[in-house]
Amino acid sequence: MNDAVYDLTLERIALIRRMVVAWNGAEPGAPMIHPEAPYGSHDRDGDIANVTGDDDGAEEEHRALEDGIAVFSQNAKLKPGRYQYHNPLAKLDCAAITDVFRDAATGETPEHITFAVTDAHLALIPQLNHVWDAEHAVPRIDLERPYGGTGPYTHAMGQHIGGATDDDSLARLHREMQPAFQIFLRYADLGPGPFRRNAASVWEPA
User: Fold this and answer.
1) What is the pTM assigned to this prediction?
2) Position 85 in a domain
């Protein structure tokens, strides 16, 4: 058990809400934070300083959000329903990554997204397996075990959402986690406070 306490501040919550969720196209694919514009622009440190008011601590704050995004995912609450958001990926280069809404022929993606977040999406979000992408210096979801477990990712998904669901349906649901996770980061409710990992390595209020 890790006794270290993570301080989820108002500033860190504000940065999490600004995070741009893209799609890592390597099989089977998984959500990741946009490597070149994690908070919406190519000026990462400037985006952070605009929130924190600290020009010198941007790197430390950015790195701290590896745990921060896991804390938020495992503790914030969102109701199922239809949500709308402005799609930041419409104006960002997606050469290194992709976007599940992007048209393969034209390279275009909608500027505005309307998406229905279901109970299944919300059951999976707390199970996302967060790791740090050292190459791109951003948080991402583990491609090999996006929902933990040791077998196929669809098997882990089925365990988390319950019921009999075929692999094709689970694969479609998995791709929907990009918009579902983007909506969750923007709109789910969670206040600031200290959090600590429990014996199962899940973040809980300290």
Assistant:
1) 0.94
2) yes
